[in-house]
Amino acid sequence: MSGTLALVGGDPFSDVCTFNRELAEGAGADEVVVLPTAAAFEHPDRLTDAATAHFAAFGVGVRALRVLTRADAMDAANADVIAAARFVYLVGPAALHARSALKQTPAWDAIVTAWANGATIAGSDAGAQVLCDPMVDDRGGAFTVGLGLIDRVAVVPRHETWHADALHRLRQLSNADLVLIGVDTSTAVIRSPEGDWSAAGPGSVDVRLGGEPAELSGLSR
To answer: Can you tell me the distance from the alpha carbon of 102 to that of 104, in angstroms, rounded to the nearest whole number?
Structure first.
């Protein structure tokens, strides 16, 4: 059975993201491995420093793993750290870069292995997008190929900032079996190891199945 999966809409280390404490406790983790791959060109240290301060407030350490490029993702030492982790967090805004850096690498294989072994995997913003397949393409309000830790699920991060026309296009393009989840900033949708879904955080979550309104409570995948 896989571990817990958390898909966060953005700003994952703000004070209102109390679900991170619950995720760490559920994983039995005293350290979180943070991968700022999707922030490679956007001051990755700012995100990892924010993570360090956030998790320190409830006694959990942070290991900032600078997997910023494909070369970093090919490094066996980095992959070993990920595979052994109980809690891995992917953060940053650039989904296409994260996908190209991680795809078919030891680092990505290690994420899959860690999750299969019961670790908690969280992704925020682009980190949430790339964990899914298909992946929402920020460039045009359509879909592209994601890394597929979970399939037939796609995430719209920072859902409250999207234009209604772009959201309508995504819904029209959704296959009948596709779950499209819009997640507001500092809000999470969480899949339990048993396959049940729930929401956490102060914002809203919009769920569509085949483009039509649905409920998280009705999902099981």
So the answer is: 6
Radius of gyration of the chain (CA): 16
Residue 221 lies in a domain: no
Predicted pLDDT of residue 120: 98
Enclosing domain of residue 37 = 5-216
Three-state DSSP at 110 gives: helix
Residues in Cβ contact with 209 at an 8 Å cutoff, skipping those fewer than 6 apart: 177, 178, 179, 180, 218, 219
Quote the CA–CA distance of 189 and 206 in Å, as a whole number.
10
Identify the H or E element spanning 22: helix 19-27
The per-residue pLDDT for range 77-132, each reduced to its tens digit, is 999 999 999 999 999 999 999 999 999 999 999 999 999 999 999 999 999 999 99
Across-strand partners of 180? 154, 208
Residue 157 belongs to domain with CATH number = 3.40.50.880
| pTM listed for this prediction | 0.96
